[in-house]
Amino acid sequence: MKDEKETRKRLQKCALEEFLEKGFMKASLRSICKKAGVTTGALYFFFEDKDDLFVSLVKEPLAGVREAMEMHFLGEKQAMESGELLSGEVQEGEADDYRTTLNIVHELYRYRDRFRLLLEKSQGSSVEGAVDEVVRICEGHYRMLADMMQQHIGGERIEHDVIHWIAHMQIDVFVYAVTHIDTEEEAVRYMDRAVKYMVCGWYGMFGVTPDMMGSGDIV
């Protein structure tokens, strides 16, 4: 059993290197097996095919980030329904956004090579559209929040195209960090400014100005 676990980990380690170098479509199972010192038959004992091997590298890290996002979205939904997000406590909302962002950034940099694999090398795999799926989850959440804000504050309904852009921007903030910023410490500084920008922009769409944030004058 111990030998099987070690063989599986060795195959994944060699696969990660191969996929990062060549991408999913050009990666060679034969090359991976040769580097791992096993036969192709041994690989098929652990993984159904190349796609299954690729997915095994990104599945758990991606699930962890999605869970953190969905928990945060659930908290925002509950806060909106209870009136907390409409009571003027914008600063507390920003603090919660920042805490969630730090947790996600930590996970992204804990498994940075695997997220780079997903973002840059997954073309042709079954998880090629994973980022688009996360964007769709964000889009649904922001549509709900925007409609609830509009019902309480008034004004015109925010257009679908704007909500779609906001969802993309939310995810692109993290994508940029993983693909362009080398250290978690630098990414945290970048995220600090990004969160401030996004929070102010969100409330600004509804006519909430910085001097109103935390004043109790939103509704």
From TrEMBL:
Gene3D superfamilies per UniProt? Tetracycline Repressor, domain 2
Q: Which domain of life is it from?
A: Bacteria
Q: Quote the DNA-binding region ranges, renumbered to this chain.
A: 28-47
The alphabetical list of record keywords is: DNA-binding
- Does this UniProt record's set of keywords contain DNA-binding? yes
Q: Would I find DNA-binding among this entry's keywords?
A: yes
Segments passing through the bilayer = none
Indicate the segments forming the HTH tetR-type domain, all copies. 5-65
Q: What is this protein called?
A: TetR/AcrR family transcriptional regulator
Q: What is the originating organism of this protein?
A: Jutongia huaianensis
